[in-house]
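Hi C.,

You asked whether I'd gotten around to modeling the 315-residue construct. I have! Everything is below, sequence then structure, no commentary in between.
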Amino acid sequence: MTLAYYIHQLDPFLAEFAPGFGIRWYGLSYLAAFACGWWLYRLLSKKGYANLPENQVGDFIAWWVVLGTILGGRIGYMLFYQFDEFLQNPAQIVRVWEGGMSAHGGMLGLLIATVAYSKIYRISWLNLGDNLVVVAPAGLFFGRCANFINGELFGRITTVPWGVQFPQELFYNPSLGARLTQVAPSLFPPSASTENFVTTIQSSPAAQEIAATILPVRHPSQLYEAFFEGALLLAILWILRTRFRLPDGILMGAFFILYALARSSVEFFREPDAPLIAALTRGQFLSLFLLLGGICVLFYSIKHPQYPLRHPTKK
């Protein structure tokens, strides 16, 4: 039997040494993000677009950017998406190995880290931020690809030919597991765990044929986000940085606005992962603040123009 849609079968582990313990693609995505950010930022500094000297980029990325991203992303996730659970058990905030990071929280953490670094080392925070947002979409790209590998944050139900069926949906919709048990109790016994159901579907062609008739087909919205929030945004900001002489802050404002627009647009294809706020998904609601912040930064940068100290001369 030929399946009409792709059933997600990707393993979240590159190497699993024990059940639930090993090298995860999600963790590697963060390493790739910071390594790529370091390399691109050094390139911008070397070419004269950044006030931060090339030999200081490593310390800035390794300490300030990494900590700002991880702390902001985790705290933001607990406050924006799991606030009730956080109040019941505040210790959850340190359980980063269980997943749960907020892109909006990570950006806020980065902003705080950038301003703090600029104050300590007396470097323009607008220039720091401009070059940081140019390379940040690379991290967003890797992160969204990892979301797809994990089969999490999937899209809404669809009929598009590139739709994907995610066995991981069983964790969020127990009724699907009950239907699988009803149709094929030998493959999906009632005593088995949801995790076993997912593993069975991903490894057994017979189970995949059964699951294909029950699992909803969904947009691979993680890949949409990887393209629009990551690859496309990186290309746009890189061109603006390297082809035009813009006042410090313009790129940061543009990033906030473009990310907010891209995220809000893709949210129409993504299954809401939190209750709606006035008909807006949580991602769209939080993006409103990014949009307003980006507009404010743009107006400030235009009204008080400052330029990179070592911007290369165009011929």
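If it helps when you're writing up: The two ends are 62 Å apart (CA to CA).

Thanks,
B.
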